[in-house]
Amino acid sequence: xxxxxxxxxxxxxxxxxxxxxxxxxxxxxxxxxxxxxxxxxxxxxxxxxxxxxxxxxxxxxxxxxxxxxxxxxxxxxxxxxxxxxxxxxxxxxxxxxxxxxxxxxxxxxxxxxxxxxxxxxxxxxxxxxxxxxxxxxxxxxxxxxxxxxxxxxxxxxxxxxxxxxxxxxxxxxxxxxxxxxxxxxxxxxxxxxxxxxxxxxxxxxxxxxxxxxxxxxxxxxxxxxxxxxxxxxxxxxxxxxxxxxxxxxxxxxxxxxxxxxxxxxxxxxxxxxxxxxxxxxxxxxxxxxxxxxxxxxxxxxxxxxxxxxxxxxxxxxxxxxxxxxxxxxxxxxxxxxxxxxxxxxxxxxxxxxxxxxxxxxxxxxxxxxxxxxxxxxxxxxxxxxxxxxxxxxxxxxxxxxxxxxxxxxxxxxxxxxxxxxxxxxxxxxxxxxxxxxxxxxxxxxxxxxxxxxxxxxxxxxxxxxxxxxxxxxxxxxxxxxxxxxxxxxxxxxxxxxxxxxxxxxxxxxxxxxxxxxxx
Amino acid sequence: xxxxxxxxxxxxxxxxxxxxxxxxxxxxxxxxxxxxxxxxxxxxxxxxxxxxxxxxxxxxxxxxxxxxxxxxxxxxxxxxxxxxxxxxxxxxxxxxxxxxxxxxxxxxxxxxxxxxxxxxxxxxxxxxxxxxxxxxxxxxxxxxxxxxxxxxxxxxxxxxxxxxxxxxxxxxxxxxxxxxxxxxxxxxxxxxxxxxxxxxxxxxxxxxxxxxxxxxxxxxxxxxxxxxxxxxxxxxxxxxxxxxxxxxxxxxxxxxxxxxxxxxxxxxxxxxxxxxxxxxxxxxxxxxxxxxxxxxxxxxxxxxxxxxxxxxxxxxxxxxxxxxxxxxxxxxxxxxxxxxxxxxxxxxxxxxxxxxxxxxxxxxxxxxxxxxxxxxxxxxxxxxxxxxxxxxxxxxxxxxxxxxxxxxxxxxxxxxxxxxxxxxxxxxxxxxxxxxxxxxxxxxxxxxxx
Lengths: 519, 450
Known about the structure:
The structure holds two protein chains of two kinds. By secondary structure, chain A is α/β, with parallel strands linked by helices.
């Protein structure tokens, strides 16, 4: 396709200059024959693959990679960063995502050569520092969650969930039990039921009571000899603590089931209560939430899984551990395979550089500091909840934990302004939007999680902005402005239906879905 | 307050008063008293300052022996010691990319979304398949998702897995098959190639092969594809995204799904993670695609923009009916790979692969010179790594070579039981290795095996 190349030096796509021009793709900036790459001088004599590899397997046309100068490459990606919101720019009260400030010392920790320049298959004698670091993190994580040991391999929360469920399955099998079902509340994260299916169990939904909590009587009706366990988030996705957790855990344990703790909401309870003490047997944590590792625009995360002592033998392996003593009396570390291990989860040892950051964060705070983190996270959520409750009431108007679910249902009924509109308008006030339409049990849900790193002044400004939006919704002119929002962003509201109808997921192809069944 | 909590004591009091509470502990009244911790009950070392934390981390780092000019890396096996451009390092550490969340509000996430769109395009060009997702956790998880996708298509849960697929990936696939109930049958290697003829009578729904395989061998994919077609099996190719600059792409060869570990593009060794799983497939399979997908659209003014699309595939909407539970992926690493690939460009990626090939061939030649005590495990053609048999256990070779200043390679043991590859050493040469390093390595390894 002969196409005129775009100028790499035009900055019209960034808000500082104009902001409303599209940023060309790297492919449109490409000029045939141009190159930015440079290679070291090695003196290695070149040889031709056609000498050894059958021609039927050799490529006859070069891979079509972009042909740009380094200058244009840097300009392009830098402009993209100017079209991107981030925690470093401002408040991100996205419920369930714990978008707290990511301390910069963790970046420094994660770029130390003694950690980064390590091949994952180096012999144990050369990776004693890494093994000790991982063993230390396992200890911190186990203590915070009240568990006996952990695996650091899972690369994200969802992978942690599946890991935990496979451990549950291996345990029941080892006990000679046939179990079929895993119970999940209707307010659960979507990953929970998906993970249950992939573990080979059947998810069974338990309804929440009118108080937003698991209905204990309904749960007891579901529990039987087929129950493998239950997955709970506590506090749950409404930001409410399951008050009857001890009754729940006794009831599940009474039928031989296990309790799985989805640690997505761990930021509410560090140093205040431990999942292990609540009766949970398996816990995963999203390190990119609670322990402030940056989320990278959607990853890498990390989802370690901690377990109670009776499940230690089932943990994934190989697993870092103390294996003996050196002649000087210091500990010697190595990899061990737990006796009844479910096997390997990750290509190597997990998202190692994320693990370093999390450990640095935990060491910085210590036990008392982590407790304070949770206290202030909960204080911030409650302050904001109460402050906006006149316009955006919570279905459950009570003390919440680290997040709360307000509703725009009243606003919608009175003015036609939906939760999504509120979210889009909030962007114009300089704040990221809350999570909308989750959990599914709340109409027009607006889920806010301010985290402990936002100041009172920031909370006040968010509340003022929300008030102003509710006020604007009262007039037709205001409503029109809300429906148009956002207008100052690099693009306005995007046509999501069109994206699904004609799928253009690369620069090269588009796929029409005439049947519309892609959507 | 401590650390990154901005609140003054006065503000905490003011906020509690606003809530009608007297102490911060009142916020936690919903938690049963019997399990509430008291302050200090967490038995962790007390918190310390930033410099103290960094000192501790440096102490850990100091107990490792990193790859460097004093420990020259000849190990590969899915994690390669490549040069990374300074531009890639600078751009990939931009905090707008680093500290953003998943692009749930596309109007303020065009940076990440467009970068992922470009990444998807680059991955599709590498793989030769039109649909690529926005990344998966790593090569192993990409393989697991590929298997799940193919079984959902063929409804036949029998998987023929070449022994030439990375043994770590294979064990991860085994672990997750414990949940899905898929039956994975390992097909052994013979002279470096997968011996498909040795498979049992059970018809496969999915066939998985490495290209080049873990031993660097360029497998005969066209023969496998026709073999698979006769059996109505889908084919997953686990490819090396650098070698593919010299080799025909998995898509051109007829793969239904192509997956790879993308660490080679701008990502450090990093003790194995975070890396990035590349995943591509045919258009017909798009509705079952795991993970996120970015699509192009327009805004209300007709301006081009990007969104995550076909969201109904995903776990948060489909819940228990979803064929994958992936939500968080490896976005930052995917963006890093896209930047490094764009920096390499059309000429650069070919040159990169060519240099890896040349270095590998040069070392091979040196190791097999007259009087050598080493032999190749097969005479099959290879691209960027090869397995060599040593007269003493490869673990001992690796330990002794450390004293000579080399990370000699990866001992092949686990995953190659009962095969003639067991007990050999996997050696890889990247574009970073100079002729002097290669020659010194060849001398040293002859010395240590004596």
